[in-house]
Amino acid sequence: MKKLFTLLLLVVAMNANSQTIFGKWNSTNDDTGKIDSVVEIYEKNGKAFAKIVEIKDENRQNAVCEECTGKNKNKPILGLEILSGLEKDDDEWSGGKILDPRNGKIYKCFIKLEEPNKLKLRGYIGFSLLGKTKYWTRAE
């Protein structure tokens, strides 16, 4: 009975995790279509943030954000906070910023859980019509 209860708790926890934006997500390279990093989205003071927790390319393990400005200039990409200050607004998180470490640019953004294991990210300048949409898949 104890094993059954433990198994049930595990299933409930896994299902709950798959219904939230929080957790680890695979980010793919636009040019190659391959997973290039794993990003962890976490909550801090009621807002969503994310940092790069794994870089798949062994040659980029020690890469720094050369194109970044300010406090992120030449910071290691591994561990870099790329998503900040998103607040929950109905079924999406918005009002924050996303940093693209490939070019150092910061965009306004919103994210939305499309499916339990598929996250939609929209980065834009000015209006959300002027931007780019990416999809991340939940990391195992």
TrEMBL record:
InterPro entries: DUF2147 (IPR019223)
Signal peptide range: 1-18
Domain of life of the native organism: Bacteria
Keyword Signal: yes
The keyword Metal-binding is assigned to this record: no
Domain DUF2147: 23-138
Keyword list, A-Z: Signal
Family matches, as Gene3D superfamilies: 2.40.128.520
Pfam family of the protein (one): DUF2147
Protein name: DUF2147 domain-containing protein
Species per Swiss-Prot/TrEMBL record: Polaribacter marinivivus
